[in-house]
Each structure stands twice: as structure tokens, then as C-alpha cells.
Design a protein that fits this description.
By secondary structure, this protein is α/β, with parallel strands linked by helices. It is elongated. The chain has helices at 19-27, 49-55, 78-96, 116-126, 140-148, 168-177, 192-201, 281-293, and strands at 3-8, 30-36, 63-68, 101-106, 131-135, 159-163, 180-184, 209-212, 220-223, 238-241. It contains eight helices and ten strands. The chain has two domains: 3-138, Tetrapyrrole methylase, N-terminal domain (Cobalt-precorrin-4 Transmethylase, domain 1, 3-Layer(aba) Sandwich), CATH 3.40.1010.10; 142-293, Tetrapyrrole methylase, C-terminal domain (Methyltransferase, Cobalt-precorrin-4 Transmethylase, Domain 2), CATH 3.30.950.10. The strands form two sheets. A five-stranded parallel sheet has the order 3-2-4-1-5, with helices on both faces. Strands 6-7-10-8-9 form a five-stranded mixed sheet, sandwiched between helices.
Length: 301
């Protein structure tokens, strides 16, 4: 039996990987890790977040790098398609050499915006006898929510996730139609002021949280309002705009109750008014500055 397993290795922090993922990686005959580059140039590529996480838990002897055009935009480009084909050929070559289980490490979860789906399609097209499996992983949105003290959803709130490769117009539509909105790949929308403008026009700039290099050296977590309009942000940056709430339990009955201030704790005080339950904006900014200055165990989302 030939098995290709897409393994979610988390958002980049080597500690945020599941026990099952480590077991699968350690028992696979070969572990493939994606690198940014062209086929044949893998050895010259920088170590990516997925590879760094794998190397923290797995013997390097079973690790093999495969090149992908990870930062290509504009649909199925020639470079992207060529990389998919070369990676699929590499996998089928490993199986032909006698491997029974091949694991492919992917950032976050293999079911969310992962290169693994394209690789799996290429492999099964070449060898229909290969069984494809996945191991779920922790995502960047979960890590950013945890580190910023942001509650993603309450009660009847909706949650939408979108990549800004879809453009700033898609973000504006999502902010108007949904409660909590999470956006990946912020720099893909163009200048950051277009993202700030969409948030401001929706009345949601103040509650939004920005995160980049979360869990790694140079971690940057701060209120989105404190990210300058002209500032350059990494491609894998993440944004969370939480649903607007009126207090504890205000969203249990839907939007109609969101404007009313719900009863707070036993002393009668009101609950949090927004999605963030962590520090104030000033405190969050200070924490973000501290994170950028030090090493926080550390590659968008």
C-alpha cells in the first residue's frame, strides 16, 4: 500500500504541532518539505517555516526538499504548474524506489489554502493506486487569536476566512456580511492603506488585530490601527476583525441582541465590548513591541 499523507505542522512555532503529526512524520519512509525556489535548486533555498518545524522533531536523514513557487500570484502560472509537476514526479519516484509512506509537511492545516491539495492531485493522476490521507494542524488564525487574547466567535456569530489574493473588495464584502472576518496574505491586496480603508469604512478598524511572524523571532502582534498605511508587511501576515459585541452573552440570541449591554460578571459589571479580551490597545502595542525586540521561539499565514 502506498500512502501520501499531508501533515499539518502548525503556523511555525515548533511547539504547536500535534502528537499525531509528530508520530506520522517520524514513521514515514520519506518526509517532504516545501521550499521556495525552482526544481533542481532546492539545496540553495532558505529553510521555511514548515521545514524548521519538521527538523525540530524528525531525523534529518528522511527529510527531502521539494521546490514550489510559493509566492507566485496570478493563478496557475507556468512556474507554479511546473513546480507542482516536478513535486508530483518526485513523490512517484520515491514510491517507485520502494517507499510505502510519504509524508508532506504543510504549514497550518492541509485542508486550508495548502499546497498539499495540488500535490495530491498530481500524484494520484500519475498513480491512482496511491491513498491520500491528511493530519489536521493548528492554523495561523488560531495562534494569533490565542496570543492576542481575541475571541473568534460567540453565540450565533459567523466566521469567514479569506485570502486577500481575492483583493480588497472581497474584504469589504466580508466585513459587511459577516461577524468575525479573518484575512490571510495581507500584502497580496496591494498597499496596506486599502485594507485600513476597508476596515475604517466598516467601522471596524479599532477592534482589528494584526499579526506577522507569530510565534517566531521578530513576532509582530498589534492593533491593526497601529500599522501604518504605507508600512511593508510580510506576505503571510494575518488580520482578525472580531464580531462586534455588547457584553457577556450579547450574541447568544443573534444580531438583534448585539446592541444591548448584557449582564456582566456576578458583580453586575459589563462584559467585554469587543472580540478582544486581552490587553488594551496601548498594552497590546507594548506587548507587540516587546515581541519584535526579542526571540519568541522562532514561518501566514
Amino acid at each position: 500500500m502506498r500512502r501520501l499523507i499531508g501533515v499539518g505542522v502548525g503556523p511555525g512555532d515548533p511547539e504547536l504541532i500535534t502528537v499525531k503529526a509528530i508520530r506520522v512524520l517520524r514513521t514515514a519512509d520519506v518526509v517532504l518539505v516545501p521550499v521556495l525556489g525552482r526544481a533542481g535548486e532546492e539545496d540553495r533555498a532558505e529553510t521555511g517555516r514548515a521545514e524548521a518545524t519538521v527538523r525540530a522533531h524528525v531525523d534529518g536523514a528522511v527529510i527531502r526538499r521539494v521546490a514550489f513557487a510559493l509566492n507566485d500570484t496570478g493563478g496557475v502560472t507556468q512556474a507554479r504548474a511546473a513546480a507542482w509537476d516536478a513535486a508530483a514526479d518526485a513523490v512517484t519516484g520515491v514510491f517507485a524506489a520502494g517507499a510505502g509512506t510519504v509524508a508532506f509537511a504543510t504549514l497550518g492545516d492541509p485542508a486550508l489554502y495548502s499546497t498539499f491539495s495540488y500535490l495530491a492531485q498530481g500524484v494520484t493522476a500519475r498513480d491512482p493506486g496511491v491513498t491520500v490521507e491528511t493530519v489536521p494542524g493548528i492554523t495561523a488564525l488560531q495562534d494569533l487569536a490565542a496570543r492576542s487574547g481575541t475571541v473568534l466567535t460567540e453565540g450565533t456569530e459567523s466566521l469567514v476566512l479569506l485570502p486577500l489574493t481575492a483583493g480588497p473588495g472581497a474584504l469589504a464584502e466580508a466585513l459587511a456580511a459577516h461577524d468575525t472576518v479573518v484575512a490571510y496574505k495581507l500584502s497580496a491586496a496591494g498597499p496596506l492603506d486599502t485594507v485600513r480603508k476597508a476596515l475604517a469604512e466598516a467601522g471596524r478598524l479599532d477592534g482589528a488585530v494584526f499579526g506577522a511572524r507569530v510565534g517566531l523571532a521578530g513576532e509582530d502582534i498589534r492593533p491593526a490601527a497601529m500599522v501604518e498605511a504605507g508600512e511593508r508587511v510580510p506576505y503571510l501576515a494575518t488580520l482578525i476583525s472580531p464580531g462586534q459585541r455588547g457584553g457577556r452573552g450579547s450574541r447568544l440570541a443573534g444580531k438583534a441582541a448585539a446592541g444591548a449591554t448584557a449582564a456582566g460578571p456576578a458583580d453586575g459589571t459589563a462584559g467585554p465590548a469587543s472580540g478582544a479580551v486581552g490587553p488594551s490597545r496601548e498594552a497590546a502595542d507594548s506587548a507587540g513591541q516587546a515581541g519584535r525586540a526579542g526571540d519568541s521561539r522562532g514561518g501566514s499565514v
